[in-house]
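[step 3/7] fold_predict: job queued, chain A
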Amino acid sequence: INAEYMGEDIRMSLTMLIKLADFSFCVRPNSLHKEWARRSQMEFYNQGDTETRLNLPVSPFMDRRKGADTFAKGHASFMSYVAGPLFELAAQLFPSLKSSVDQLVQNHSLWTHRYGIA
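[step 4/7] structure written:
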């Protein structure tokens, strides 16, 4: 194996680990997950408020006027299409993360059932 290839592989792995840490609220026990999702929602809404104030188009899922169900749909999609696949891949490399994937599935289920998201 050449050193340049290994360097890229290491960089990719470290990047993945940083993303896993960033998305870790998705795999926390439900009470912590809900609190961090609420904080994320407030951050998104604050950005939407700023965009409105600057007469810019409001980014998707960041408009508090559209209600909590819009944020819930966006959050469930994020868990389905971004965080979920990343944690599933990481669990293949690090089998001890399987319980994290299970928790993510449980948290995702709570959002989909609560808001009737398919």
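[step 5/7] annotate
The two ends are 45 Å apart (CA to CA).
The chain has a mean pLDDT of 89.
exit 0
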